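Continuing the series of single-chain predictions for the mutant panel. This is the parent chain; the variants come on the following pages.
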Amino acid sequence: QVRLVESGGGLVQPGGSLRLSCVASGITFSIYHMGWYRQTPGKQRELVAAITTRGEPKYTGSVKGRFTISRDNAKNTVYLQMNSLNPEDTAVYYCNADPPSVVGYWGQGTQVTVSS
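Parent structure:
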């Protein structure tokens, strides 16, 4: 059974930092490109950062230079270090494979709220 469990979200002031974690089970984690996605009410889920099986990252333009994605295959975990957060980063953050269709399952996500 596939499980993706995200954690690390919370309330942070503008300019602050958070580190998200996602533990995967039920899949051979190391063979999947992985990504962090986010969604706000009324909008489609968007990919904000991805990392290949070889550890090569890519980012959407709005987070480039502020977010860092990494993975630990020994722990079946993918991370997202988020710095210089701003209110536009407020969303529910999810991890999944890239593309997500290869897994076909979404976890509960973790809420990130950036507000003073």
